[in-house]
Amino acid sequence: MTASKRRWLERLAPWIVTIGLLVIWQVVVVAFRIEPFIMPSPSAIFDAFVQYRDSILIHAWQTMVSTLLGFSLGIVVGLLLGIFIGSSRLVYAGLYPVLIGFNSVPKVAMVPVLVLWLGIGQPTAVVTAFLLCFFPIAVNVATGLATVEPELEDVLRSLGASKTDLLIKVGLPRAMPYFFASLKVAITLAFVGAVISETLASNDGIGYLMIQASSQFRVPLMFAGLAVIAAMGVVTYVVFAVIERRVTGWAVRGQNMSISGGGG
Amino acid sequence: MLALATPPAAMAPSASSGPDTAPSSPPGTPFVQLDGVGLSYGGPQGLKALNNTNMAIEKGRFIAVVGPSGCGKSSLMKLVTGLQPPTQGSVSVNGAKVNGPLKIVGMAFQNPSLLPWRPLLSNVMLPLEIVQPHRSRLRANKAEYLAKARALLETVGLQEFETKFPWMLSGGMQQRANLCRSLIHDPDLLMLDEPFGALDAFTREELWGVLQEVWMERRFTCILVTHDLREAAYLADTIYVMSARPGTIIARHEVDLPRPRTVDTTFEPRFVDLVHTIRSEIAQVRNEAKKAAKAGATKAGTTEQKAS
Ligand SMILES: Nc1ncnc2c1ncn2[C@@H]1O[C@H](COP(=O)(O)OP(=O)(O)OP(=O)(O)O)[C@@H](O)[C@H]1O
Ligand SMILES: [Mg+2]
C-alpha cells in the first residue's frame, strides 16, 4: 500500500514541483508589483505565447530541425570516433590531446568562423549543434568499449575471435548503455548549440526571436521563447531516456525498471 | 581505453593448425608441451613471472596446477593458449608450435563473465558464433545446435533457466553456465582458471562432480588452475606444484585414485595424505620465498646506507 503510494508520489513529484514553482513565481510578481519588462509573471508569459503563437512555433520548429540535424550528425561522428578511439591504442594516443584541446574551446567562439565558411543561417546552427554534441557521445562509446572484461576477451580470443568479432559480439553491446546515456546529454547540448548560433548569426529560430524581442523590450515574449526551449529540451530528453530504458534494460539489472522516473 | 586493442601475436599459419585440425598427434608425443618456458612482463629486464617451466601433457589427461598466489599460474594458461608469447623456450600444442591464440580452446575463469544482454541459452551458444566450422553451419543447422546446448545445460541442471538473463541467476548457476559455454564447441583442450574459486563449499563439490562426469564422457585434455588442493586431488590425474615467483614446476604427483571419485573419496587416507604432502610442499616454497624477500630487502637496505 505504502509502496504504491510512494510510486504515485514519485510520478507526480515533477509536476507538483513545476506547478509549485510557477505559482510561487506568479504570487511574488503580483505581490511585489514587479514590472513586466523586468520579470513578467507566468500568466503574462502565457499570454505572450498565445499572442505570438504562430511566429514562436515557426521559429521553434526551425530550431528543432537544426538541433536534430546537428544531433544526427553528432551521433554518426561520435559513434564512429568512439569506436575508433576505443578499439585502438594508437588512435587513442594520437587523438586524445587534440580532442581535449578541441573540447576546451568554447563553441560560441567558433560561430564567427563558421559564419565565414557557411554564412548566416541554418547551416551554421546545425554545425554548431553538432560541434557541441558529438564529444560526449564519442567519449562515452570509447569508455563503454574499455569496460569489456579482459577475461571475456581472453575467452573469445582463444576461440579464434577476430577484432571485428569482439567488437560486434561484445564491445558494441557493452558500450550501448554508455551510448544511450550520452544521447540524453548530447541532445541537450545540441539545443544549446543551435540556439547560441541563432542568437549570433541567423534570421530564424528561437535564438533569433529572443534577440529580436530583446531589442524591442518585449520581455514576456523573450520568456515565452525561453519556456519553449526548455519544453523542447525536456521532451527530447524524455524521449531518449525512454529509448535508453527500452534498449539497455539489462544494464540496470532489472531493478525497478518499470517504475523509475515517469516525469523524466 | 585499450579494450580490444591487444594485438594478437603474429598469426603464423601454424597457429591455425590447432588441436583439432591436425588428424592426430603421433603416439608418444604429448598433446601440450612446454620446453624451458620463461615469461617476463615488460621486457627481458621486467618482472619475471615464469622460469624454465617444463610440462608434457598427454592427450585426454586431466591436469591440475597448484602453487602459491602470484606464482604465474594464470600466466601459464595464457602461454598455453597462445594469448601471451613466451619470452624464452617454446610451447607446442598437438605437435604444432603455438604462435598466436589457438582457435578452438575452451576457457573458463573465476569470473563467469557471461554477457548480461543475452539469455542463458544464447550465452552458452556464443562460441558457436565464432569457432569454425560451427560458425558457418550455425544458421542452417540451428535446431541441431539448440538441442546440443539444451542437453549441455541439462547436464549441469540449468534446463529450466535457458531464457533467464545471467543477472537473474546465482553465482553458482552462472558458473555452471560458464562451464557449458566453454564446452559447447567440443574443445579438445579445456583451460580452467580457478573456475570454482568464488563458490561455497557445497556448490563447489557438486560442480566437481559435474565436471568429472563431463570429462569422463568426453575425455578432452583439461588443465585446471586452482588454489584448492582438495579440488586438484579430486579432479586431476596429475598435479603439478609450482614454486613462488618466478614460477617453475617443483613437483609432480600422479593421482591414481579410481574414478568416478566422490566426496567420500576425499576422506580416504590416500587422498588426505596426498593433500598433506602437496600442502607442505607449497608451505615450504612460500617460506623460502618469504626468507628470500627479507634477505633481499636487508641487502638493499645496507647498500642504500652505504650509498648515503
Ligand atoms: N599483464 C601483466 N603485466 C605485468 N605483470 C603481470 C601481468 N599479469 C601478471 N603479472 C605478474 O606476473 C606474476 C604472475 O601472475 P599470475 O596472474 O600468472 O599469477 P597467479 O599464479 O595466477 O596468481 P593467483 O594465484 O593469485 O591468481 C604476478 O607477480 C603478476 O604481478
Ligand atoms: Mg591467477
From TrEMBL, chain A:
Q: Which compartments is it annotated to reside in? A: Cell membrane
Q: Which domain of life is it from?
A: Bacteria
List keywords of the entry alphabetically. Answer: Cell membrane, Membrane, Transmembrane, Transmembrane helix, Transport
Q: Which organism is it from?
A: Azorhizobium oxalatiphilum
Upper classification of the source organism reads:
Bacteria, Pseudomonadati, Pseudomonadota, Alphaproteobacteria, Hyphomicrobiales
Check the record and name the Gene3D superfamilies matching this protein.
Answer: MetI-like
Q: What is this protein called?
A: ABC transporter permease
Give an example GO cellular component term for this record. plasma membrane
Gene Ontology BP, a term = transmembrane transport
Which residue ranges traverse the bilayer? 12-34, 64-86, 98-120, 126-148, 178-201, 221-243
TrEMBL record, chain B:
Region (Disordered) spans which residues?
1-30
Q: Which PANTHER family match?
A: ALIPHATIC SULFONATES IMPORT ATP-BINDING PROTEIN SSUB, TAURINE IMPORT ATP-BINDING PROTEIN-RELATED
Q: Which InterPro entries match?
A: AAA+_ATPase (IPR003593), ABC_transporter-like_ATP-bd (IPR003439), ABC_transporter-like_CS (IPR017871), ABC_transporter_ATP-bind (IPR050166), P-loop_NTPase (IPR027417)
- Organism field: Azorhizobium oxalatiphilum
Transmembrane segments annotated in the record for this chain: none
All residue ranges annotated as the ABC transporter domain in the record: 32-269
Query: Where is composition skewed (Low complexity) in this entry?
Result: 1-17
Q: Does the keyword DNA-binding apply?
A: no
Pfam families tied to this protein = ABC_tran
Q: Does the keyword Ubl conjugation apply?
A: no
Write the lineage as a comma-separated list: Bacteria, Pseudomonadati, Pseudomonadota, Alphaproteobacteria, Hyphomicrobiales
What does the record give under GO molecular function? ATP binding; ATP hydrolysis activity
Q: Which UniProt keywords apply?
A: ATP-binding, Nucleotide-binding, Transport
Please state what the protein is called: Nitrate ABC transporter ATP-binding protein
Q: Which family does it belong to?
A: Belongs to the ABC transporter superfamily.
